[in-house]
């Protein structure tokens, strides 16, 4: 398989804790991604989502004590930001079933329970960036990748 050219991918990291964000920045740089935009709190995340032309968003479900994953639902529905369907990965620190389901219902391409090695995350990103995304759907209750295993 040919190497993926990551140099033109617009990336946003909204990650807490900061040491994890730094590890991911290093891993992304080593994989030739450009310097990502960063968001440290919900207000900055909302501004960045509204203004930036993003191809890839990686965020923790909680930022500065707030559950920020629902902003992805706004992105998916076209009410926040210029592009509704960037690749989105939500990292969940408290990986109980309820928290994972809440994050998944916001429409990300993937939800990953922490801890996760940066290389494992890069492998998943490369899978999406090489064209292996699920079909995207928008309906009254959900906007994001098709999650049903069978067609109705």
Our estimate of the beta-strand percent is: 15-25%
Helix content: 25-40%
CATH fold title = Rossmann fold
The value of Rg in angstroms is 15 Å
Gap from first CA to last CA: 34 Å
User: Any low-confidence stretches, pLDDT <50, length ≥5?
Assistant: none
**Sheet with most strands: strand arrangement:** 2-1-3-6-7
Tell me the major beta sheet.
5 strands, parallel
Overall mean pLDDT stands at 86
| Coarse morphology | globular
Q: How many strand segments?
A: 9
CATH superfamily: Response regulator
Return the CATH class.
Alpha Beta
Number of domains: 1
H/E element order: EHEHEEEHEHEHEE
Tally of contiguous helical segments: 5
Secondary structure category: alpha/beta
The second-level CATH architecture is 3-Layer(aba) Sandwich
């Amino acid at each position: 398989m040919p190497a993926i050219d990551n140099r033109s991918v617009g990336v946003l990291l909204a990650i807490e804790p900061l040491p994890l964000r730094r590890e991911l920045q290093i891993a992304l740089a080593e994989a030739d991604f450009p310097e990502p935009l960063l968001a440290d709190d919900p207000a900055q995340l909302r501004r960045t989502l509204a203004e930036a032309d993003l191809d890839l968003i990686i965020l923790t479900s909680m930022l500065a004590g707030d559950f920020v994953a629902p902003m992805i639902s706004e992105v998916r529905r076209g009410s926040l930001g210029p592009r509704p369907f960037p690749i989105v990965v939500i990292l969940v620190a408290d990986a109980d079933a309820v928290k994972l389901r809440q994050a998944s219902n916001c429409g990300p391409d993937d939800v990953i329970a922490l801890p996760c090695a940066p290389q494992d995350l890069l492998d998943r990103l490369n899978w999406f960036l090489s064209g292996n995304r699920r079909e995207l759907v928008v309906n009254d209750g959900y906007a994001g990748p098709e999650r049903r295993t069978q067609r109705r």
